[in-house]
Design goal:
Length: 282
């Protein structure tokens, strides 16, 4: 059973993530599991003084949210409320539900923003064994997924994201843009990147997808990837979050965090040691 887990705090950004998840669910015949995490399980909705009255319980908010978007998605939608740390609970729910992907907002604009701003979104990405897509406010959730950017670096782990990413791209018949990035202008680095890029090119061709290639020497992997993705009008960027055996941890720590926090384009993140399986998309 295909299932997508979506983190919901009822902010504008989390509702955007929900709408993005609906788009994925429609293409992959998936069910949706919405997860709200609170410090205390009293189910009361925190409100600021002077705010217009909102539903009294989290359950009511879930019911209103599902009802509002029922016309966009006829599949099964379930929701649950958990207590604990948001990144741990969402990762746990994805694992227990055997979800093939998690979708979350990169920022929150509600009373729960402490959980969603900055490093908290990255914590979900770095904790979850399930691939995660982060979506920032301002992106058109209903926009078709037509162009996917896959940055390739000089590490062995960089190609691990290819099978899952290409499975997703195939569902949307999206063009794939393989971006070869040289963090150093040395022969050794170039050779490793070129070898990884050649493997990526073969994967894309075998998948029967349109391939566009580009390469550049860069000082900052993240900013170069984002700028290139903007230039080609991409709809998704696919990265690795952990490269623990790499000589240079290109997407580890600050780089992945910067990507999640600053990319206006949704980011698909996968942990390197997970060896992501694509069976859920078949």
């Amino acid at each position: 059973m295909n299932r997508i887990v979506t983190g919901i705090d009822f902010s504008k950004t989390s509702v955007l993530a929900f709408r993005y998840a609906i788009k994925l669910a429609q293409k992959t015949d998936s069910e949706l599991l919405l997860v709200n995490v609170q410090k205390h399980l009293d189910y009361e909705v925190p409100q600021k003084a002077g705010e217009p009255r909102r539903p009294d319980t989290v359950v009511e908010q879930f019911e209103n949210l599902v009802s509002t978007h029922r016309g966009d998605f006829k599949g099964n939608i379930e929701y649950t409320v958990k207590k604990g740390r948001i990144h741990e609970e969402i990762a746990n729910q994805a694992r227990y539900a055997d979800a093939w992907i998690v979708v979350v907002g990169a920022h929150g604009l509600s009373g729960f923003e402490e959980f969603w701003m900055g490093t908290h979104s990255y914590r979900i990405v770095s904790t979850s064994e399930t691939p995660v897509i982060t979506v920032r406010l301002g992106f058109d959730a209903g926009r078709p997924l037509k162009a996917v950017v896959i940055p390739i670096d000089n590490t062995l782990e960089t190609t691990q994201k290819l099978p899952f990413t290409l499975d997703l791209a195939t569902k949307f018949n999206a063009d794939v843009f393989v971006l070869s990035l040289y963090s150093e202008n040395t022969r050794a680095v170039k050779d490793r990147v070129n070898s990884n890029a050649d493997a990526a090119h073969r994967f894309v061709r075998e998948a029967g997808l349109r391939l566009v290639t580009h390469s550049e020497v860069c000082e900052n992997i993240t900013s170069s990837t984002i700028e290139y993705a903007k230039n080609v009008d991409a709809d998704l960027i696919s990265i690795m979050t952990e490269q623990e055996y790499a000589p240079r941890n290109i997407f580890l720590g600050p780089y992945a965090q910067q990507m999640v926090n600053h990319s206006p384009i949704p980011v698909l993140s996968m942990r390197g040691k997970t060896l992501v399986q694509s069976k859920h998309l078949i």
